[in-house]
Amino acid sequence: MGNYFFKPAPPPSLSEPWREINWGERQSALKSVQDYKPRIKGQHLRILLHGPVGAGKSSFINSVISVLEVKMRTLAVTESTSTDCCTKKYTTYKIQKGSPDAFYPLVLNDMSGVKNGTRRNRKIHVKDVTRLMKGHVKDGYTFNPECKISKDDQHYNTSPTVNDKVHVLVSVIDASKVSLMSHEVLEVMLDIREEAKELGIPHVAILTQIDQACPEIQKDIKNVYRSIKLREKMEQFSVNSGIPLNSIFPVKNYHDEIDLNGDVDSLILSALRSIINIGEDFLNRKNT
Fold first, then answer.
1. For residue 12, what is the DSSP state?
2. Please, what are the domains in the chain?
3. Closest among 46, 42, 34 to 96, alpha carbons compared
4. What does the pLDDT look like over 65-83, one tens digit per residue?
């Protein structure tokens, strides 16, 4: 009989994490966000979330609000299926900080998701997002795939302030569908990335559903930066989107839980702190 050599399957996890998270220090991570203040009084950081339909934009917003308000919140409407987009209007979410009339100096903006369509529809979507980033779109605007917002629209802002403009663009992607993303959707996201670059707006990405994409993470979320499979997905999306690996942050959104979890919070806070730091650098450059 001949000799047969079988190449062993690679391990699902690395022995050492390739990115560090302070899992046991949720309170200090939360305090660093609570202590955030823009240099200019009255200014806030505007974070725009966009991405494919069903990627988890609204769920991420709910998760961030839950972590910062330290109670489970569901302000942004979500669906249990990803066949259609819940968000039809441009919506701003403020986050309470202690008393009902006090808020964090950052806002999260949700918008309709990217989906397959005609080239004309895709161009209209990109044009609307460009106007969003420039601050020309008011809260409550309903997206229309057939036509971009006009200057005569009641939701068109003719004189945007620095607080109306977007300071960080965040692409939200379902980690389990990175390899399944259509060319049409990716093309729209690349066009929006180019528009953001023209405006000097920093661009990062959030990968959701990491527990569904990787069994070792579902078993223990602390395996997030040990998972070889997740690392490969992040690298693949980095190549496809042009977003550097150090600007891509995996998270687990709250979905079926009724109580907060310290490890889930730590991962969300880690991503949020990075987004705030990146956005603050942009604000400081604009103000100098």
1. S
2. 42-287 (3.40.50.300)
3. 34
4. 999 999 998 887 665 545 4
**93 bridge partner residues:** 108
Q: Which residues pair with 227 in a beta bridge?
A: 13
Q: Which two tokens stand for residue 265?
A: 């919070």
- Please measure the distance between the N-terminal and C-terminal CA atoms of the chain and give it in whole angstroms: 76
DSSP labels for 192-207?
A: HHHHHHHHT--EEEEE
C-alpha distances in Å from residue 20, one per residue of 32, 173, 225, 266: 17, 22, 8, 11
Distance of CA 180 to the CA centre of its chain: 19
SS (H, E, C) 44-82: CEEEEEECECCCCHHHHHHHHHHHHHCCCCCCCCCCCCC
Nearest to 115 by CA among 78, 70, 83: 83
Using an 8 Å Cβ cutoff, are 193 and 237 in contact? no
Give me the sign of the Cα torsion angle 164, 168, 169, 172: negative
pTM over 0.85: yes
Over residues 140-194, the pLDDT tens digits come to 999 888 899 999 999 999 999 999 999 999 999 999 999 999 999 999 999 999 9
